[in-house]
Amino acid sequence: MSISSSKKITKILGAELDKLVSLPLIWLTLIGTFILNLVLAAAFTSAGLQGAAGTQSILNIGLASMGYLQAGFIILGISATCSEYTSGQIRTTLTVIPWRGFQLSAKHLALAVITIPAAFIIAASGILYTFMMMRDTAVGFEIDTMIETLVGATGYLTLTTLLSAAIGALLRRTTPALVMLLGYYFIISPLSRDFLPNYFPDTAGYYMYMPASNDEINVLTPMQGTGILMLWTLIFIKVAIIFYRQRDA
Amino acid sequence: MLTINNLVKHRGTDKILSGISFKARPGRVTGFLGPNGAGKSSTLRILLGLDHATSGSALINGKPFAELHNPLTTVGAALDGFGAHRMRTGRAHLRWIARAAGLSRSRVEEVLEIVGLTNAAGKRVGSYSLGMGKRLGMAAALLGDPQILVLDEPVNGLDPEGIRWIRTFLRERAQSGNTVLLSSHLMGELAETVDDVVIIHHGKVVADGTLEEVIGNHSTLEEAFFALTSEHAGDVV
């Protein structure tokens, strides 16, 4: 890659980061997700204190809110791409950065830069809260297991955000993208979980952070789960870029 | 130099542009006129790489927009609408644009000063009036101090002072050798500002020449415009 191209990519990435951090909706979504996660963690911890607790239980309880927490990251991803289509901003974007493939890739990269620390902090806050509340009942707590689980949860939330951003870029309108993704993650997927294989983004991604119990069949390893979710994400980003290049703005 | 060459645009079964050709030259302000739906915005959008042409070309200094090395320092564009997210402040909007083009933050303050938006720069774009939105669009177009300006209805929504400012500003830009292409439906205003005029109707160029040539035997540009865009108008002037 030439110095000129590398400088251009750095500028585009910087601009996309500026766009994200200067949009109040992004911060509102992250703060709202953080608060919601703590409330849910408190509720699940309170319920967990009623039963026996060990290392696994703390992680399980600390991450029990992940199913709901991902809604915030889905909104984050959709907001990042659909905000381009508010008040004609896409026209400004493309007259400043007409290299569409670069621009949309940079937007996803900038989103990942913001999402990774946010997802880590939010997921860790739930586990930390649970740990603090249940440490007296915890036996042989494994820090390595917790770190692996946290990394998996961060990866899952980040890839889910990027997947949502790609679908937002494809649909270009916030409401249809929200209805489609929240409908899939919260209605269609839970209802069809017993019939469909574990190769869908949410079901495969589940194994990135939640160790499978022994009585489960067709289980995936965390690496397999990561690979499958990453593949889904890359496919959707690629499709979004193809459509983005071909369509009129 | 802007060169539109035999540009055709179809949208579904609709023919938006039917082979239009014209040039906007350095040192001159070119007015681009036409009734609503004539194809003005489509032409500008293709020129700026926002829409794809069915055939033909729209070139900036001989290159398609996407092949420009640094578009912002070559072409400043302000199209309809604010072009900025309503929840972002005017200053934040200009800052991300400046970052993309490798321009300094002090340049953002300069253009805010030029368009008279410094005091409102910290407010969200959603609270801007139409005129303030237009000024923000102009500020974005001027950030890179480009040789070429492409402006869609630049005076729409501006107060008399703003209209006077933009007229003087565009004349000065052209006099210093820059290229200015602007669309407008305000004939009186346009006649005060432009050197050359292109009129399109139903996706075809019906007049292309200097202001004097296009006005011809008519008393005003407005009369010439209506004569040329009436259903039974004749050939290209």
TrEMBL record, chain A:
List the transmembrane segments: 20-45, 57-82, 109-131, 151-171, 178-200, 220-244
Which key words are in the record?
A: Membrane, Transmembrane, Transmembrane helix
Q: Which domain of life is it from?
A: Bacteria
Name of the molecule in the record = ABC transporter permease
UniProtKB/TrEMBL annotation, chain B:
A matching Pfam family:
ABC_tran
Which SUPFAM superfamilies did the record assign? Answer: P-loop containing nucleoside triphosphate hydrolases (SSF52540)
Under InterPro entries, the record lists: AAA+_ATPase (IPR003593), ABC_transporter-like_ATP-bd (IPR003439), P-loop_NTPase (IPR027417)
Keywords of this entry: ATP-binding, Nucleotide-binding, Transport
Presence of the UniProt keyword Nucleotide-binding in the record? yes
Tell me where in this chain the ABC transporter domain is found: 2-227
Give the family from UniProt: Belongs to the ABC transporter superfamily.
User: What name is this protein filed under?
Assistant: ABC transporter domain-containing protein
Natural source organism: Paenibacillus aceti
